[in-house]
Amino acid sequence: MELGDRKKKILQLIIESYIETAEPVGSRYIAKKNDLSLSPATIRNEMADLEEMGYLEQPHTSAGRVPSQAGYRFYVDQLMERYFMTMADMERVNQALKLQTEEIDKIIARVCQVMSDVTDFTTVAVTPKHDKSRIKKLDLVMIDAHSFLAVIVTDNAIVKNKLFRTSGTIDEKALKLFSGLLNQTLTNISIGSITLDMINSLKKAVPEYANELIPVLNFVHEVVTQLDRSNLYMKGANNILKYPEFADLDKARSFIEFLEDGEAVSEIIKKVPDGAEQTSIIIGSENNNPHMAGSSLILRTYKIDDTAYGCLGLIGPIRMDYRKAVSDIEYFGRRLSLLFEEIFHGGET
Amino acid sequence: MELGDRKKKILQLIIESYIETAEPVGSRYIAKKNDLSLSPATIRNEMADLEEMGYLEQPHTSAGRVPSQAGYRFYVDQLMERYFMTMADMERVNQALKLQTEEIDKIIARVCQVMSDVTDFTTVAVTPKHDKSRIKKLDLVMIDAHSFLAVIVTDNAIVKNKLFRTSGTIDEKALKLFSGLLNQTLTNISIGSITLDMINSLKKAVPEYANELIPVLNFVHEVVTQLDRSNLYMKGANNILKYPEFADLDKARSFIEFLEDGEAVSEIIKKVPDGAEQTSIIIGSENNNPHMAGSSLILRTYKIDDTAYGCLGLIGPIRMDYRKAVSDIEYFGRRLSLLFEEIFHGGET
DNA sequence: TGTTAGCACTCAGAGAGAACGAGTGCTAAC
DNA sequence: GTTAGCACTCGTTCTCTCTGAGTGCTAACA
Description:
The structure is a homodimer of 349-residue chains.
Chain A: H1 5-21, H2 27-33, H3 40-52, E1 56-57, E2 66-67, H4 69-79, H5 87-97, H6 104-119, E3 122-126, E4 135-144, E5 147-154, E6 159-165, H7 172-186, H8 196-205, H9 210-227, E7 232-235, H10 249-261, H11 263-270, E8 279-282, E9 295-305, E10 308-317, H12 322-345
Antiparallel strand pairs in A: 1-2, 3-7, 3-10, 4-5, 5-6, 8-9, 9-10
Helix pairs in contact in A: 1-4, 2-3, 5-6, 6-12, 7-8, 8-9
Chain A binds a DNA duplex (30 and 30 nucleotides) through α3.
């Protein structure tokens, strides 16, 4: 059966009312609420049809209707109107983002935090893999006679460091030698192409300093592996406590624990196609994870540079305000892409 | 009135039973539970006395007794027996801590996380002020013709960095000049003694490069201010959902929000005397914050080095297992002090 | 043919009251 | 000083009824 305009309108009204109030919607309410000028009885007929088609459900005989998962899907695909973020929220976002520039990952973590504050949802953010970036400089800074610090800087300004203690005393000269060696071999090639063999071969280059060098090489390997992987940030997991869906405390707590583990969410996000700035809406059980069957995800990719994309996400109950969520996340995604554009190709700071 | 041994024993039993079950404790239960071999009636007399003295309270006539704040205080000061952390928990802690060495703040954040997992409490950790540490090296790494990265390394291995973009092109020579200038003036003196004047005076040294240098100087100032301040980490705020005290969802949520703000907790921790490794127990309204009147804090200082102390904390309901909490936090404190001892004065890595 | 008024029916939720039982304080006897 | 006995309190739980929002169906209407 094809959905007539009137049915569409009714479905939309029901869904939007339910999103707002979390209460089953009755025919009377719809009849009064708007300009269709139809009697409750007529609305009831239409609602019965919509239920038959699978877009609505009835918690029990004497309750109103509630959107089904298919109902939300139809709404999101065909009925949902565009929403615009309020100026106040935009201002808030801009304020939060205009703080000092810092490490990429920290910027992303902060966006995640702000997004959770603004949207009242649990937010996640995946940092890009840095397998395409290159080590720009590998510095060994002497701290005292028994310790030095290794600092790795990449061409997209990621800095990793680690302190080392040595058994014997070390001197600047040995450190210079090491760092020369390391810089020679490992800089200016993409992280993804650095292999364990390459790193290991360096061990043989200075056998007399092997004791000191091996831990440094392990560190390099660790950093390379780390950068080759994307990272998941999650903020505001306890925002779910704001939704009546999670009024049951045990349910809420175990869901928060499940979320904070991060594994499952990562799994879902991985399936988002890479390489284009776009928004995905995953409703309820569409995510194929029984623990999250009652939740929806809105995902949005963002661009770091031509070789790296990351992903932002909102997690909320199925009955979430998709209009607002989509508009919000798109704003954040755009802002973030823009910010990186500025950082990497923009004017002066 | 002085507390006889029998009264003490009864008080202890009541408190420990209440800590375990969160249910008011009746006379029958105490009479049966243990070897006092007294009848419920006798226990009731004693309980009435203890209530009169202010150590116990009655939620209502027909309920059992519940410890008062004064009761917990007396328990903590005089009755509480030593408890030893289980080997399993210790093992868990050691596993979590033996991962790679990294930035001090990150180690502390991780300890905070592990502590929250092991204890089921909300945990906080204050990183030490680094006002006594010194800038060891200030490096400017050229990234491309229009950008460079400033990296600051302190003598206790803290690394801060920031990316800068320049309007004109820059060359290695100018960067060398800058970094020479900066290193000359700012290294090897304690962070606390670096003044804004000192930083500003550098602006005049190379007027021709002022445009490029000023942002860097601002960054230096920012880092110095940051290091001069202690940082608060908080983990497991939603652990409070595990306690029946927070069965009311709204209460729980607003308390979590209040906690995560961090301000109030910082305020309380500030009052802990610095400079010695010790445990403080702050019960209920003793913390002087109405929002936290229903919670207790266990605080433990730890030592980074002779000039810097930090603080770990557990936050839970007043009815918390003080025995276990104290033992746990002391173990973590000791482990952390030890870890830093190793990092800064220990053998090889 | 679509719309509507009318009506019987369903069922969750609120409220009232009764029964229960855990616990108390007091008294009197041991 | 201790304990058995007993009346009393009061939160909790259960049952029952009542209420009202909402439904589906039927028959009349435009």
